[in-house]
Amino acid sequence: MTHHCHRCGTALPAAPPVDCPACGYQMFLNARPTATVIILDGDRFLSLVRAREPNAGRWDLPGGFCDGWELPADAAVREAREELNVTVRLDRFVGMYVGGYRFQDETLPVLDMFWLATIVDGQLRPDPSEATGHDWLPLADPPPMAFSTMDSALRDAAALLAGKY
Question: What are the residue boundaries of the Nudix hydrolase domain, all occurrences included (predicted)?
Fold first, then answer.
């Protein structure tokens, strides 16, 4: 957590949101955007076994942080290409969920965005630095995922496909 002003370096009297007492700069702690795909094959979705911390070894979905000024939908397509070696077509937007991501000894707020997606090109070859394995799992009964926002998104995706939304 930053305890100094980003602009002038003065020690801050409290955690953000806070105004710097020296220069008046307003500091906020905003959620970092992520983009994730739920790739479907009938009533199953593609899940990866997470290769790195946090939550290494847990089931995961392909996705990651948006780059600065990158549109989240573009980030979702890029992440699928980088992690799986495939091109996806984004289908319906599932939703946005606020969660936490443990990184460098702090928990960062994240705004996780999820899309249903379909593979349209390429040979599925997960990047071994991202995943130690993969499988097609039932959307109606998914296992616990690496992050709670994924659990919520999968429940909402199943409801969306069942016409409950």
Answer: 30-158
